[in-house]
Amino acid sequence: MNKAIVDILKRDSVIAQLADTLEVKPLPVTNDIYIDMLENIISQQLSGRVATTIFNRFLDLFPDRYPNPNHLLKFDDLELRKVGLSGAKTIYLKAMAEFAMNHDLAVDSIQRLPDDEVIKLLTQVKGVGVWTAQMLLIFSLGRNDVFPVDDLAIRQGMAELYHLKSDGKRLRHDLLQISERWAPYRTWGTRLVWAYVNSKKQNAARV
Prior knowledge:
Number of strands: 0
Number of domains: 2
CATH class of the largest domain: Mainly Alpha
CATH architecture of the largest domain: Orthogonal Bundle
Oligomer: single chain
Strand content: under 5%
Shape: globular
CATH topology of the largest domain: Endonuclease III, domain 1
Radius of gyration: 18 Å
Largest sheet: none
Order of helices and strands: HHHHHHHHHHHHH
CATH superfamily of the largest domain: Hypothetical protein, domain 2
């Protein structure tokens, strides 16, 4: 992290301590939003290790390990299920393929959109919620100010780090309020919390 980011994050003593002990590096910008969205859909509600295994098995089904949208749409659902995909995720992956065939997902085009517009665009796809779109913003587009408040690892990690006893809507409110201290670099605070969780549970989250 550069000095400007660290200086902002040090407004929060908890995050400042994490920044002193954990390393979070810049992420490269993707060259393929479609394939990243397929991976994000597969990753929903799974640990990092399990998601990676299933995603690789999924890629192995296709020539050159690339699920061309037209090919994916025609692919037999039962064969997709055999690699560990649920019936719902099979539907969502095909919905993403159809969306990619009918919308401009070029990186240059998507990068011109503000965060909320990217989320609005991608959540048109069946099975893609705000969290899934936020993962694209963070890991594929390198956006600096994203806070996935509904991420399980974030909720658990921050509840522990900040000694929060609230739950439900109150916990959500508390987390959003804490994250405001990190703006405009909430992504970096988020990734430090993930790094903290990963330091305790190796496959809990990407960082």
